[in-house]
Write a structure and sequence with these properties.
This protein is an alpha/beta fold. It is 38% helix and 16% strand. It comes from Salvia splendens.
Length: 311
C-alpha cells in the first residue's frame, strides 16, 4: 500500500486526498470538465452527491472507455440524501450510471420527507429517523453489489455508537467537516478505537460556500507555517489533516488548485508545528452554529444541537 492510501476496515484501499464535486452553482458540463482535469493530475478519489452523480459518472465512464483510466484506479463515493432514508437501494439505483460505486454514505443522521431536496430544509420537512431501517437498506446495497463499502457522514460519537449497537456491517468511514479550526479530536479518538476511518470534507474551512469561511487559510499560524515551508496555506491545512490520519476531500474545479492540493502529500509538518496548529484558539463549529440558527434547520436550531456530544 502506498503512502498516499489508507486501508479501511473492510479491506478496501482508498486514496487519502481527493476531489469533491458537489456544487450548487455548477452545471453538468462544468462538473464533467472538472473530473477530467482531476484525472489529469492523478486525483483518483472523487466524492459526489446524488444530485450531480450523472455528471461525475458520465465523465468517468468516458475516461474509462477512452483508456485514460481503469475503473479500479478511481475511488467513487456518493451519499444517501435525507429524503431517501426509507429506501437506500432505490435511491442508489436511480442515480447509478456506473456498474457500482466504491463507497455509499448516509449523508446526515436526519430523515426528511420524501419530496425534500433543498440543502437547508425547513422545520416542517423533517421526519423521525429510524436508523436501523436506513442501515439495513445500506447493507442491502452492499449485498447487491451496488457499492463496495458503506459508511456515514456527519455522525457524532453518540450516533455512531447507536449504529454500532445493531449494525451487521460497521461503517467503514465517517465523513465530517474537519480542519485546524474544527479538529474533531473526541470523534477521531472514538473512530480510531472502533476502526472507522475519518474523512474530512471542507478541510480548508469551506471558503466560497454558504456555510464556509476563509478564516482557516487566513490564520496567522497557518500562513506563517506556509511561509516557513515555502508552501501555501491550503497545503499546510491539508497536511495537518493528513497528519491526523484522515483523508481530505477538497472541492476545486481549477486544475492549478488541484495540483496545489495534491502537493500537500509532499509537505511533512514537524510534531511541534502540528501541536502549534492544535493550540489555535478559534473553533469553527461556533461559526457553523450561527449559520444554522440563521437558516432555521428544523429540530436542530444549531449545529451543536445536531453534534450533540462533540463538546
Amino acid at each position: 500500500m502506498r503512502g498516499d492510501q489508507v486501508r479501511l476496515n473492510n479491506g478496501m484501499i482508498m486514496p487519502v486526498i481527493g476531489m469533491g464535486t458537489y456544487s450548487f452553482e455548477n452545471d453538468r458540463k462544468s462538473t464533467e470538465q472538472a473530473v477530467q482535469l482531476a484525472l489529469k493530475v492523478s486525483l483518483s478519489l472523487t466524492h459526489t452527491h446524488m444530485n450531480n452523480f450523472a455528471a461525475l459518472g458520465g465523465a468517468l465512464n468516458e475516461a474509462i472507455a477512452n483508456g485514460i483510466v481503469e475503473r479500479e484506479e478511481v475511488f467513487v463515493t456518493s451519499k444517501l440524501w435525507g429524503s431517501h432514508h426509507h429506501d437506500p437501494v432505490s435511491a442508489l439505483q436511480k442515480t447509478l450510471i456506473m456498474e457500482y460505486i466504491d463507497m455509499y454514505l448516509v449523508h446526515w443522521p436526519v430523515r426528511l420527507k420524501s419530496w425534500v431536496c433543498d440543502p437547508i430544509p425547513k422545520e416542517d420537512e423533517f421526519e423521525p429517523l429510524c436508523l436501523d431501517v436506513t442501515w439495513s437498506g445500506m447493507e442491502k446495497c452492499l449485498e447487491m453489489g451496488l457499492c463496495k463499502g458503506i459508511g456515514v457522514s456527519n455522525f457524532s460519537c453518540k450516533k455512531l455508537q447507536n449504529l454500532l449497537d445493531f449494525a451487521f456491517v460497521p461503517p467503514a468511514i465517517n465523513q465530517v467537516e474537519m480542519h485546524p479550526m474544527w479538529r474533531q479530536k473526541k470523534l477521531r479518538d472514538f473512530c480510531r478505537d472502533h476502526n472507522i476511518h475519518v474523512s474530512a470534507y471542507s478541510p480548508l474551512g469551506g471558503p466560497g460556500n454558504l456555510w464556509g469561511s476563509t478564516v482557516v487559510i487566513e490564520d496567522p499560524v497557518i500562513k506563517s507555517l506556509a511561509l516557513k515551508h515555502r508552501a501555501t496555506p491550503a497545503q499546510v491545512a491539508l497536511s495537518w489533516g493528513l497528519s491526523k490520519g484522515a483523508s481530505v476531500i477538497v472541492k476545486s474545479f481549477n486544475q492549478e488548485r488541484m495540483k496545489e492540493n495534491k502537493g500537500a502529500l509532499d509537505l511533512k509538518l514537524e510534531d511541534e508545528e502540528i501541536l502549534e496548529i492544535d493550540s489555535m484558539f478559534k473553533e469553527m463549529k461556533i461559526l457553523r452554529g450561527e449559520v444554522f440558527v440563521n437558516q432555521a434547520t428544523g429540530p436542530y436550531k444549531t449545529l451543536q444541537d445536531l453534534w450533540d456530544d462533540e463538546t
